[in-house]
Amino acid sequence: MAGTITATTFAAKGRGLVRANCAMTCVAGAIAAAGIGTFFGRLVAIGYDPVAGGGATMTTTADILLTDAWTGAPIISDLDMGTARWERPTVAIVDAAGAAVTPATTAPNCNRDIFVAGPLNLAVANATTTDTGLVSFVFDGGN
Amino acid sequence: MAGTVVTTIVKQEGKARGIVRVGVALTCASGAVSAAHIGKYYGKLVGLVFEPTAGAGATMTSTADVLITDALTGASLIADLSFGTAHQDRPTMPIQDSDGTVVAAADTAVDTRRDVFVCGSINVAIANATTTDTGYLGLVFEEGVN
Predict the structure, then answer these.
(1) Which of A24, A33, A137, B99 is deepest in the core (most CB within 10 A)?
(2) Tally of domains in chain A
(3) Do A23 and B7 touch (CB under 8 A)?
(4) Which domain holds residue A50?
(5) Do residues A84 and B73 make contact, with C-beta atoms less than 8 angstroms apart?
(6) How many helices (H) and strands (E) does chain A have?
(7) Interval A119-132: pLDDT, tens
(8) ipTM score here?
(9) Helix (H) or strand (E) segment spanning residue B47
């Protein structure tokens, strides 16, 4: 007898655009992976504010790590909290065998929007002592 | 024990409005307008309309900088350094990969600009105009229909 697979389906009613404002406070220069909520859709913007909060400014050494909570898979691994800025994140595509598609004249469109579906965790590494900051994630949850 | 993350969720209250245009009448003092709140918007910024001769003051020339920022973070959304002549723009921004590195446009990377999404309060400021210049700035958002 072969093994088994148990599939559990998760879906959400579209919420339109949703923004998660994450106020971060480091201890010993880090934050362990913490749940920031459950989101469904495209991650269409990330806003960084390294001076938010009452602690020291979160500098370019600070790493922002957004992961899928169930699997621990990295979604964003930004190694530079840096200055206040607004980004439009994408991810490199892979082929049907899971191999990264290398940009070439025959493969000219190799970055696509990042989709999430489920709970997300946020962690910070390599900050300094009790740095504080704010990072915003904007999700297009559909209609 | 490691640090903490406190998350606050922000989304549009009520129904999405579809296409929304906000008209911003600008009046400079000493050639500038400090960052001013123009409202809350939730969607794609799909148009910018510039009218440098609007208002009773002097024409806002190409030296005037239009600075649109996310109010909460202070992050720059648009930094247009030439108010210039009456024109309409379709703004976009460069993409980053998942480690935050800008994807450089190349023959092999041909789709490296995407729509600018906003979600929350927006500020507008003017810099490097002249004395009491006046002008009009229109921002068009596509908010979707929920």
Answers:
(1) A24
(2) 1
(3) yes
(4) 17-91+103-140
(5) yes
(6) 0, 9
(7) 999 999 999 999 99
(8) 0.88
(9) strand B33-51
